[in-house]
Amino acid sequence: MQPTSHRFVDNAHDALHNETLQQALANVRVNFIEKRRLAVEALPEFDELRKAGRDIRDRVLSDLDTHLLAFEAKVQAQGGQVHWCADAESARRTVLKICQEAGAKRVTKGKTMIGEEIGINDYLEANHIEPVETDLGEYIIQLRHEAPSHLIAPAVHVTQKQVEETFRKAHRDLDPQRNLDEPSSLLAEAREKLRQRFLSADVGITGANFLVAETGTSVIVTNEGNGDLTQTLPRVHIALASIDKVVPTLDDLTVLLRLLARSATGQEMSVYTTLSTGPRRADDHDGPGAYHVVILDNGRSKLLGTEKQDLLRCIRCGACLNHCPIYHAVGGHAYGWVYGGPIGAALTPALVGLEEAHHLPNASTLCGRCEQVCPMQIPIPNILRHWREEELRRGLAPVAMRRGIGVWAFFAKRPALYRLATRIGARLLRNFAGRKGRLARVPLAPPVLTQGWTDMRDLPAPSGKTFHALYRQRRTGSS
Amino acid sequence: MTAQSNIAAKRPRVALFVTCLVDLFRPTVGFASIKLLEDAGCDVEVPSVQTCCGQPAYNSGDSINAADIARQVIDAFEGYDYVVAPSGSCGGMISKHYPDLLAADKDYADRARKLAAKTFELTQFLVDVRKLDKVAARLDGSVTYHDSCSSLREMGVKAQPRKLLATVAGLNFRELPDGESCCGFGGTFCVKYPEISNRMVEEKTGNIVKTGADLLLAGDLGCLLNMAGKLKRQGSAVQARHVAEVLAGMTDEPAIGEGER
Amino acid sequence: MSDRDNILASIRNHKRPSGAPVVTPPVPARGQVAGAERQALFVEMATAAAATVEVVDDPEMIPELVGQYLARHNLPARLVLASDAVIANLPWADHPMIAHRIGPATGQDHVALTSAFAGIAETGTLALLSGPETPTTLNFLPEHSLILLQASAIRGTYEELWRDLRDATNGGADWPRTVNLITGPSRSADIEQKLLMGAHGPRKLHILLLND
Hints:
The structure holds 3 protein chains of 3 kinds.
Chain A lengths: L7 H9 L2 H23 L4 H16 L2 H14 L3 E5 L2 H14 L4 E4 L3 H6 L1 H7 L3 E4 L2 H8 L16 H11 L12 H18 L2 E4 L3 E3 L4 E6 L3 H7 L3 E7 L3 E2 L2 H15 L7 E5 L13 E7 L22 H5 L1 H6 L10 H12 L1 H4 L1 H4 L6 H5 L6 H14 L5 H14 L2 H19 L4 E2 L7 H8 L4 E2 L6 H10 L3
Chain B lengths: L12 E4 L3 H6 L1 H13 L3 E3 L9 H5 L3 H15 L4 E4 L2 H14 L7 H9 L1 E3 H8 L8 E9 L2 H6 L4 H7 L3 E6 L14 H4 L1 H18 L3 E4 L2 H13 L5 E4 H5 L14
Parallel strand pairs in B: 1-2, 1-3, 3-4, 5-6, 5-7, 7-8
Chain C lengths: L2 H12 L20 H14 L3 E5 L5 H11 L5 E4 L3 H4 L10 E4 L8 E5 L2 E3 L4 E5 L14 E7 L3 E2 L2 H11 L9 E5 L4 E5 L2 E4 L6 E7 L2
Parallel strand pairs in C: 1-12, 2-3, 2-4, 4-7, 5-8, 7-12
Antiparallel strand pairs in C: 5-6, 6-9, 10-11
């Protein structure tokens, strides 16, 4: 997927003025936040589990190769195959090769963000293989030729009305008079349409929420059951996973599962948590004849040992998105690539480069709500700050901002000069404001610093004298 | 007028960290802070070399200037028993970020940690350290309170201002819906991404107006300038003050962004 | 160098030791109950997840109860069955009105009856294993999923489940292709966050809880 993160400001502008999108986004905040809160309240051990989950991840990351190799060995012992792919291109080619060797014409897909990351759908289509998204949200956006805008609710930016329009346009073989007023009728239609696809697919591609080294298992977590139909009915199952997905044991998996659904949707457990290990056994009556796990690096191994390593703890719950005021305002597409919200802002520069994605770590007030709700305690605000440091160091920050901070710091380090400058500034602004006590425009100040303010709000005027001047006056008794 | 409190046998020496915004825009907040601290049994001094905590540089990725400023602050403030700021943002900078910022500095790393351990936000200090449980102020009217992000998440301030406001005679307190959402100030964020900031502050003022309160309070002047500026641009009659002004009974000065009466 | 070599080399170059302590994670107290309390918890949690639970004292009654279920839901009197020891030994012959077939499910099956390996009271979840007697498709293709769970197979927590499953599979050597952890019937909230039941998996999950 070609990033448009460099156009974040324009993307955000479009998003803010998109009435339908704003209507859809209003649901996100209300539903997800409240449901998570209730689920967390209902589990007294939740905070301890967060620490335990964080520690499990940190231990794995400190010895990632060992765990991945243990996983690989177990997968092979059960008759499956593991494919290591350094980058997106390698992963695409690997998946295509497996599909071609299976003589595949149609591929069903469970939801996979790694699939988005490598752009597998377009690639398969270009090679005359039809990919069919089966997660309802993914199916909707596939019909609309859109990218997902949320980690777990891909069509969160689409209204019910838009779903109806999309279905009417795409399902032309159905009775045009049919009633699609109720969301349940939309769901029934999707279920009907996709059932045939499930049954006729040659290959099923899923993601993997976790990889368990103990048993050589990939785990998927869904509510719809589409992932299970995708990985049970076709001849071949391919699970796509990034290198950070591995956990050592089933008990470690359990800690993370206890955190995942609660943080994501406020459920105790998702409806379907499925552990898959190898192809069908000799005496099984169903299941794929071949099982492949594709493990993708794509820039992640380089984060190990850096102050950004903690990003690899992420379990893709989406809680950070659900609580982020930036995400609430502009939605996921504005971020311009696969991952949106706070995790997207922190991870995207690592995967597509800071030149492309430099706006993302900057478009944050560092309010810290993401870190507060993250089940893995990822210090996202700190990591965003590290990106800003790197941006400054590499000369990528806008000149005006750099100069502004430089000038301000010059004064801040020289108290006597600072006192003088602030006395003058306070007096001037007070005079400009006059009796009104506020300014609708700030004359003489550099527009880049003030337009952003006064275009949208008044600037309250200073009282006129600085605290330090008044304090000294009162102390010395002078007036 | 001494507020009821557990006064220590020896009066602690508290250095007031004025904050650059209070210094420039609204000195009353500084004087109200001093009054509250003195009433709570502290000796208050204002180190004269202070300018800023360094957060604008720090959040812009300029760790070098931020560290220089941090050292300046440590030099000026470390000699006191406590450092108190009428701001969760500046308090948080010193108490949560100075140790990280100077972790690699042989001379200052330990000094930063020591200063961090004795730096507090104003209401946090009054309630948690000085054990203040009431103030002697009076304000007739309805009030709502915005929890600034740093106060809430870095300093753990939520119950403390509410505890003290509940003892202000005549005051009717109303909780702000969606109170834990950021107001959109974020330092340079509000001028770097003004459209998004504007959306956030619109949400916030919408909720403020919904409470029906006459007066908005908060513990951070940055947030207050942002919210008051938006309220005034929207033609709202809701006024805004720093919580210290109300707790100290010093509400003679016009509210933030209001003209002279 | 292959991609595998490159990735391993990169990981080895960059990884750093972690200070993370090895502490036993907490197991939620909720699931650490036994006996009648555990069974009650299972029923409560499963019901909260929109499964229906029917307690059965006599396994011989099951074909009858299945017949009643089919009638209740206006379903044709036929279903596909698993062939584990319990289900295989039920008196289906006494209920010739219910047409039954044994094997994996197809797109034509409306109803399936299979057996769970265990239940987990902590979250009202069923654990089902793939195998020649309990094909996975029985859990997903039909609209109505009937699952037989023996009360003695209800564990309190997931930790107990894994312990027992490791034992039952020769220390993991005979691990099944699929372990399905199922909590309630299929659902989606992808249309404006409205919760809708019956996405792609079964619309209804009916648990026959056998008191044994």
